[in-house]
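A note on notation is needed here, since sequence and fold are reported together in a single record. The reader may check this reading against the record printed directly beneath this paragraph.
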Amino acid sequence: MRFLPLTPDNRAEMLLRIGATGIDDLYGDVPRDKLLAKAPNLPRHASEIEVERTLGRMAERNIDARSAPFFVGCGAYKHHIPASVDHLIQRSEFLTSYTPYQPEIAQGTLQMLFEFQTQVASLTAMEVANASMYDGSTGTAEAVLMAHRLTKRKRTVLSGGLHPHYGEVVRTISRMASDDVVSLPADPTASENILDQIDSSTSCVVVQSPDVFGNLRDLRPIAAKCQAQGALLIAVFTEVVSLGLVEAPGAMGADIVVGEGQSIGNGLNFGGPYVGLFATRQKYVRQMPGRLAGETRDAEGRRGFVLTLSTREQHIRREKATSNICTNSGLCALAFSIHMSLLGQAGLQKLARVNHANAVKLADLLARVPNVSVLNETFFNEFTIRIKGSAARVIEDLAERGVLGGVPFSRLAPGAGHDDLIVVASTEMNTQADRTAYAAALKGLM
C-alpha cells in the first residue's frame, strides 16, 4: 500500500519537531515579493489524464524553440547537438552509473571525468579543473567562497557586466555567511571603472567575458590590480563556445575560471539540468570545490583513475569540506565531453567562427532598422540593442509575429533602469531567412 505522510497530524508532528509554527515558516528566507499572493488557478484535484490535458494547454501558450527563428541567449543557447551524443550518453554503463567511490568498478566513469577535466583545463588555459558543478551560477558562488578561503578576506566585487542571476546567487550565499558584496551597476557599454573598487580588503573580483550584454572584456588590467592587492580574479563566461575564438581567461591572468557548459553537448532542456565548468591554478587545487578525478598507476603499473582531494560534505570530516555541493552533473558533463571530442580543436574553432559571423550579419541587419541601435563595439555571438519603447513589450510583439527575438534586460534585472535594452544571440542554428524575418518583424514594430 502506498504511504503518503500528508495528513494534518503528520504535518503538525513534523512542524513541531523542527520548531516551526506553520508551513509559511519554511519559506522565511524567501523574499516576500518572490512569493505568490495566491494559489495558481489550477484545479485542486484531478485525474492523471486531466493533469496532462491541463498542463498541455498551458504549454501550448508557449512558442517552441524549434518552431520559430530563435535569438534567445543570456546563459541558455540553442546549438546543434550531434545525434551521436544522445546515443552514447544513453548507454546503460553511463546512464545508470552513480558516484564512482569504488574505482575498481568505475574506471569508465572516472576516465570520462578525467578527460572532461582535461578538456575544461585546456579550454580555459588553466592548470586544473574539477569534474563539473551544478551550473555556471552556483559554480560562480562556489568560486567566491573558494577565494574567501584562500585570501582570508570577505569582500567581493561583482562587475556590472555579470549576469544578474549569477550575481543574485552570489549575494544569496554571501548573505548567509555575512560576507560583503559590492555589486556595480549594470553596464551595457563595459565602461565601468572596476579597478577603483579593488583594494587591500578585497577578496575577489568577478568579471564576465563575454559579459551579459555581449561585450568582450580585457581581463589583464584587472588581473594586474588584483595581484597587486592580494585579491583573486574570478573570470566568468556563460557561452563556452566563445572559448573557441576569444583568448582564454587563464591566458589573461584569471585565478579562477568558472562558467556554463550547456552550449556543448546539452540542449536547452527547459532551463536545465546544465553543467558548470570550474578551473583554477595548481597551487589552489586543495581549495577547489567539488570532485576531482586523478590519474594513477595500480600495483601492476597499469594506468588507472580515482577520485582524489575530495573533502566533500558527506565525508567524515565535514568541517573540512570545500563545498556543500554533494554531486556533479555527471551525465551533462559526459555529453559535453563527447561533443567536444567530436568537434576537436579545429571543429570548435570553426563552430565559433560561424557563430561570430552569424551574429555580425544579424547586428548589421538590425542596426539598419529605424529606432534601433547596436551598443557593442566588440562581441562574440551575443550583443545588445537599444530600441524605442519597452523592450519587454517589443519581445512579446515579436513572439506574436513568430520571432523569438532575445531577452529584454528588464527581465533579468527588474528595476535596473534599462527597460529599452534587448540582449540578442545568434548561433550556427540561425539562417539568413531567420535573420531577415527578425529584421522585418522588428522594423514593423518600430
User: Anything to note?
Assistant: The chain is about 35% helix and 15% strand. The first strand starts at residue 128 and ends at 129. The chain has a mean pLDDT of 93. The CA atoms of residues 369 and 444 lie 9 Å apart.
